[in-house]
Amino acid sequence: MPGPLGDLCRGQVHGAGEAALLPGGVPPGVDHDEPGSATGQGGVDVGRVGLEPQLGREVRDCGGIGCAGGAGGCRCHTTTLVWLAQEQKWQNRQGPGIGCQTDRVLQDVVAVVGEQVAAFELGVLAEVFGLDRSSAGLPGYDFAVAAVRPGLVPTTSGYAVQVQHGLQRLAQADLIAVPSWTTTDSPVPPELVTALHAAVDRGARVLSVCSGAFLLAAAGLLDGRRTATHWQYAKTLADRYPAVQVDADVLYVDTGQVITSAGTAAAIDACLYLVRAEHGAAVANTVARRMVVAPHRSGGQAQFVEAPVPSTHATDLAALLDWARAHLAKPLPVAVLARRAHMSQRTFARRFTAATGTTPHRWLLDQRLAHAEHLLETTDLTIDDVARRCGLGSSDTLRHQFARRRRTSPQAFRRTFQASAAAHIAARSPTLTRPAEVSR
Fold it and tell me: Residue 431 and residue 440: Cα distance in Å, rounded?
């Protein structure tokens, strides 16, 4: 397989209302006259960034402190994920990028726990980052659990876990994850606050899961940031920390160095999003298959979908969604969809949102952009042909939607992420997907 096909800067959102989606300017492969940046408000609920590392691509990962030409200087690294055909595995090749001041990559992950920890949320972190899948050729991580006071820590499920590391373990972490935290208004150990700030200051990322946002908020790391947490804790978090922009509806939010997610299953979505952003779709999809979960749910998807009882209408709607996916090239206004579902437009719109957590328009746009990405990655169709086949009509509309939703252009996406046939075959190889004896 050939070596790196290019490099790129992944988008960062440094704070409320400020988005530096291409820090350091336009990456190689992006025309200077193509859209490459946008401004968000308090973060971007990213489900699929568009500028993601893929197999054989070199990635410049900016720490958000400043890139080439910025006041802080470049703090990029490069990591290349290479498919070794003879050995049938992926291998990380890493090193500092051009003008880099650090060689940090996502290899060291630490889960920090309090006096009690949620068993499921900790288990998700251990499943994604702690399970050794190197026998399948997948990237591995140094995973550890740390606490202010190491020792036996009770879980919310009636058993305890042995925590071996103290807060000094955070000093080398690339990602610090908080699987849960108390929602009571109790003081946070000052040494933990100091360790978290020191980690962020040196460029590490932090991830909160469910009530873990309470620790980050108490430490002042969420001030001015759009933040996700479990919907049942959202009001408490917002009332206690008014400087935090709490969004009770979304699954996860990435604001650059800080990622926050809702409860339980949303932890899987956020972790797979991080794997995808670090290693690309092929790796994330393979990990998801090993976990037997969906590979991708958009961060902006609703936490709670109200579909209490399956009904004839629900069955009809499922069939309608399949039909719509197969006919994306056609105009699909609500009137057409409602008529096919044998409902009035008002009833259809209400039931569609209740069943899917989004509107018909947004759902169709997501499907069309996903299909466009697939065509750009796997075919040599012109941009006009891709736009027509996915139902967006013209290349101008496709470019506009890519710039707005993916923060890149179709041309740049194709140049950066067009996967080789070998990579597609490798990602689906039985060698990678066959369950191992003692690991997933």
Answer: 13
From residue 359, give the alpha-carbon distance in Å to each of 302, 314, 324, 371.
11, 15, 14, 18
- In single-letter form, the type of residue at position 165 comes to H
The identity of residue 298, as a single letter, is S
Residue with tokens 């025309």: 31
Provide mean pLDDT across the span 226-238.
95
Q: Please provide residue 246's backbone torsions phi and psi, each rounded to the nearest 5 degrees.
A: -80, 130
Backbone angles phi and psi of 285, in degrees to 5: -65, -35
* Segment (H or E) for 327: none
Residues present in the chain in total: 440
- The tokens describing 137, both together, are 């050729």
What CA–CA distance (Å, rounded) separates 66 from 75? 7
Give the pLDDT confidence of 65-116 residue by residue, as tens digits. Answer: 233 333 333 334 444 444 444 455 554 444 333 333 334 479 999 999 999 9
**What's the pLDDT tens digit per position in 324-361?**
999 999 999 999 999 999 999 999 999 998 888 788 99
Tally of helices (H runs) and strands (E runs) in the chain: 15, 15
296-329 tens-digit pLDDT? 666 655 565 443 333 444 556 888 999 999 999 9
In the numeric block, the tokens 């509309």 are attached to 397
The residue type found at 200 is V
Listed in sequence order, the DSSP H helices in 357-420 are 360-378, 383-389, 395-401, 410-417
Burial letters for 371-402: b for 16+ Cβ neighbours within 10 Å, e otherwise? bbbebbbeeeeebeebbbbbbbeebeebbebb
Say how far apart CA 350 and CA 359 lie, in whole Å. Answer: 9
Q: What is the rounded CA–CA span in Å between residue 366 and residue 259?
A: 22
Partnered with residue 145 across adjacent β-strands are 111
Q: Which of 180, 261, 174, 176 is nearest to 214 (CA)?
A: 180
Domains delineated in the chain? 108-291 (3.40.50.880), 312-421 (1.10.10.60)
User: pLDDT tens-digit profile of 129-141?
Assistant: 999 999 888 999 9
Rounded CA separation 14/123 (Å)? 30
pTM of the predicted model as reported, rounded to 2 decimal places? 0.58
Per-residue pLDDT reduced to its tens digit, 171-193: 999 999 999 999 999 999 999 99
251/260 Cα distance (integer angstroms): 9
